[in-house]
Design brief:
Layout: H1 2-29, E1 40-47, H2 52-63, H3 73-84, E2 97-101, E3 105-111, E4 117-124, H4 130-133, E5 142-152
Antiparallel strand pairs: 1-5, 2-3, 3-4, 4-5
Length: 155
């Protein structure tokens, strides 16, 4: 009887050992990755219509001394944001961050206070206005696109 108990004990230990090995092999092959949940983002793009005749008319208007702020890219960016949303009525130009700047193109970014929204405005100085303006540095800035990127933050 003693031999039967020993034999059953060995069999039980062997089965337990094999079960543990099988479990370990299954878990290691499962390739488990834990990563934080990434927030979903929504992107809305506003394309401003460019009318060459109206742009030349505005350039002439600015050349005559009216609305000189049209030559300041930061002020034009704030104006473009106000055109897409009334929530920017109190926006200060200093709140905008210049993302990139070239002679004929500039991109400004504004991040909302809650961190859930980012606003990007792209402005251009068009070459066809250079003749009317006299030099590229006197050409008015015209909004090309405005983007609103909103992130859904999950708890």
């Amino acid at each position: 009887m003693n031999a039967t108990i020993q034999n059953k004990s060995r069999t039980a230990i062997l089965w337990a050992l094999l079960s543990c090995l099988f479990f370990a092999a299954t878990v290691s092959a499962a390739d488990l990755h834990f990563s934080p949940i990434q927030p979903k983002s929504h992107r809305v793009v506003y394309n401003f219509a460019i009318d060459a005749a109206k742009a030349e008319e505005l350039q002439r208007w600015v050349n005559e001394g009216h609305d000189p702020w049209c030559r300041d890219a930061q002020l034009v960016a704030v104006s473009a944001l106000r055109r897409i949303s009334s929530r920017f009525e109190e926006l200060e130009p200093a709140s905008l961050e210049r993302e990139s700047h070239e002679t004929a193109k500039v991109v400004y970014t504004f991040h909302s206070f809650d961190g859930q929204s980012t606003y990007r405005v792209t402005l251009r100085r068009y070459r066809f206005l250079r003749k009317t303006a006299g030099s590229i540095h006197r050409v008015i800035w015209i909004p090309e696109t405005a983007e609103i990127i909103t992130r859904d933050v999950r708890d």
